[in-house]
Specification:
about 180 residues; Deoxyuridine 5'-Triphosphate Nucleotidohydrolase, Chain A; 3-stranded antiparallel sheet
Length: about 180
């Protein structure tokens, strides 16, 4: 017999400090046929899809970059940031990603959100009005106070970086350093 409590999936998880964050959003230009606001496409999605707000389709050739307007501006509360990230389907199927991922939108920025895309694929890609081009994830941030020291505390890893643990596993098992 289980004495665990029953959790109603419609109720916010009590372990999550801020289950909902209210973000002010505005459209930066009038349009008689406005695009939908960013949406979370599934109940478990961490990122909301951002749409291309283009007047006409835009072709991005292999190796080229383009800055895509979204037609929206947001007011992020202090203590948070928005991260603009690639959509996995665009990256895998077409080689389209963000050259600076994740892109950070600071809480004091009030201009139009624009998404830099780069085509790393082999074919020209066409981006059209309303295409889901990126996803936006909101994260808490903290300010830091620097404390300069003569030497840093030693760790097992030390200065090892950029692949210092290799890529192979032994017998498909990870081994400790």
């Amino acid at each position: 017999m289980s004495l665990g409590r029953v959790v109603d999936p419609r109720v916010a998880d009590p372990r999550v400090a801020d289950p909902k964050l209210t973000i002010q959003i505005s459209r930066v230009r009038e349009n008689p046929n406005p695009l939908p606001l960013p949406q979370f496409m599934t109940s478990g999605a961490s990122g909301c899809d951002v749409l291309a707000d283009l007047k006409k389709p835009l072709k991005i050739k292999p190796g080229e970059r383009a800055l895509i307007p979204t037609g929206i501006a947001i007011a992020i509360p202090a203590g948070y940031e928005a991260q603009v990230r690639p959509r996995s389907g665009l990256a895998w199927k077409w080689g389209v990603t963000l050259p600076n991922t994740p892109g950070t939108i600071d809480s004091d920025y009030r201009g139009e959100i624009k998404v830099p895309l780069i085509n790393l694929g082999k074919k020209t890609v066409t981006i059209s009005r309303g295409d889901r081009i990126a996803q936006m994830v909101f994260q808490k941030v903290c300010l830091v106070e620097w404390k300069e020291v003569q030497a840093l505390e030693e760790t097992q890893r030390g200065e090892g970086g950029f692949g210092h643990t290799g890529i192979k596993t032994k017998n498909h098992r990870y081994e400790r350093l």
